[in-house]
Specification:
With 404 residues, the protein is an all-alpha fold. The chain contains 19 helices and no strands. The longest helix is centred in the middle third of the chain and has 32 residues. It starts with 6 loop residues before the first helix and ends with a helix. The C terminus is likely disordered.
Amino acid sequence: MEKKMSYKKMLPVLFGFFVMGFCDVVGITSAHVKEDLLGGYSPEFRDTLSNLIPVALFSMFLIFSIPTGILMNRIGRKKTVVLSNVITMVAMFIPLIEYNFTMSLVAFALLGVANAILQVSLNPLLTNVVKGDQLTSSLTAGQFIKAISSFSAPFIAAFAASQFGNWQYIFPIYAVVTLLSTIWLMAIPIAEDGIVVRATGFGSVAAILKDKTIFLLFLGILFVVGVDVGVNTASSKILMERAGLNSIEAGYGPSVYFALRTIGAFLGAFLLAKYSSSKFYKMNVVVMMIALVILIFPSDKFLIFGLYGMIGFSIANVFPILFGMAIQSRPDKANEISGLMITGVFGGAVIPFFMGLLSDIIGSQIGSVLVILGGASYLLFIAFFIGKPQNEKTSGVNRSANAG
């Protein structure tokens, strides 16, 4: 059944993507933890240890994504989003209780639980307030809002440091924003007419992977998130290593990345409503690969900033394209597919872990870039297998075409 789009209902759902963006604070946090808390550790282990911050966060997606898809079938999408916001608020106060390496890992693991629940539930909730043929562009609009949140993190941290004397006060600021988001969403009635309560288990969710297209898209989600988190995590460290910047100055590396990702998501929200998502995907992945190859070599900070911008702009729409293709391929399994696809966000734990290992082995952030480049190579590979994943001009998805 086609749904009439209500901006009154759509806006609080879209604002949830701003809360979703809080997970990207792992980039600057990893750099701060390395500088603040790991100075006494042997240099050959510092990257591996500091990269455990994103590992702690994104590993939660592997554990909680599929159970969240199952939970939604019992309590509904909106209540699941509210649950995630409550957990987010708890996580945001942990660094203020005790700022050490162990408590940082605990805080970001809990934030990972909340973010996994939010990403699984918020995307399907959006389908209850927008038209089906507007799903991809609406998901991209959500990623645009998420990118704004990610882009603003270093500036909020700098504001907290200058006004309150400590960058860690970014966390209670995030808690207040999450509370406002929760109140706004709870005040708006949303009819979840796509929900039916049914018995669902891990087996039935995992069985969806037997669909070749779903499997390829699942791996695509894993690698695009890995690349995204990898660039976010490594960007400050690359600038510190090659250009000699301190952690505050290098923190603007992620800002450039997210600024251009924000612009890319903004433009994509319009372009994807008119043009083929598969061609748009291919073009962006090629640009991303070129920028990553060049990133292996330079030490000039302005060139590095420019490359971050290229990567951010080109990666902006890859996630919503892949996610939208998966959801539209089996709309009757939207909850289960959402849980399965968001499990792929676990790539944000896998890629940084190997980045830290290789960087410590080589003794240079070139190791991080090489691991990121390896992950991006799959995104280029998959571009040739999703050439006609959906018929944007007609029904939205042609599953038989997907098999080719």
